[in-house]
Amino acid sequence: MALALSILLLVILTNVLAWIGHAVLLDAAYALYARIVDNAGFSEQKQLKASILELKYDLAHTSAQDEFAKWAKLRRRHDKAMADLEKLNTRLGASKSSFSSNFNWFLWFATTGAQFVLVWWYRREPVFFLPPGWLGPMGWFLSLPSAPSGSVSGAAWQMACQRVVKMGERFVKDLLEPSPEQAGPADASATNKTKQS
């Protein structure tokens, strides 16, 4: 029964992570990574942005004709800060790209790869046995690829769990979405207009 529960929990975890969304998980993980590992780069970026805004304000309030020397000095400082910010953004972008690649690999291995490994490792182990003659001659199908005849294999149990979890997802989504009858008159008219077009 531990194998059945392990496969079920892994399928649920995989689907919950899919429901949350890859982009949301990546952004949250990268924000945590950035705070822990590369905090100096992000604090430097924040300081550069603040100084650029201050320099833009000073440039806007300095006359290029009346105070040319001051304006030129501010302009050079602004251009240098913009170049530094561009270099820093490139470095931080490369860091995020590298993190994204590693995070994708980790997420795949923790969900899909773990399911493959678990089913492969226990491919000869029955998850549970079916009552004799319950499905007649088709009972052997559930024991594929290598489980004893008359049992349910890990692969068949995984597919059944995935199907039930997907049906549960659809049921919850249907409960949370208002039907056209439950929607107010304004919502119903908007729905009708989109259907007509």
TrEMBL record:
UniProt-listed GO biological process terms: tail-anchored membrane protein insertion into ER membrane
Subcellular location: Endoplasmic reticulum membrane
Main location: endoplasmic reticulum
Keywords: Coiled coil, Endoplasmic reticulum, Membrane, Signal, Transmembrane, Transmembrane helix, Transport
Residue ranges that the UniProt entry lists as topological domain Cytoplasmic: 169-197
Transmembrane segments: 105-122
Residue ranges of the region described as Disordered: 176-197
InterPro entries tied to this protein: Get1, Get1_fungi, Helix_hairpin_bin_sf
Signal peptide positions on this chain: 1-18
Membrane topology label: Multi-pass membrane protein
Pfam families in the record: CHD5 (PF04420)
UniProt GO cellular component terms: endoplasmic reticulum membrane; GET complex
Residue intervals on the Lumenal side: 1-3
A GO molecular-function annotation: protein-membrane adaptor activity
Family note: Belongs to the WRB/GET1 family.
Name of this protein: Uncharacterized protein
Organism: Serendipita indica (strain DSM 11827) (Root endophyte fungus)
Lineage: Eukaryota, Fungi, Dikarya, Basidiomycota, Agaricomycotina
UniProt gene name: GET1
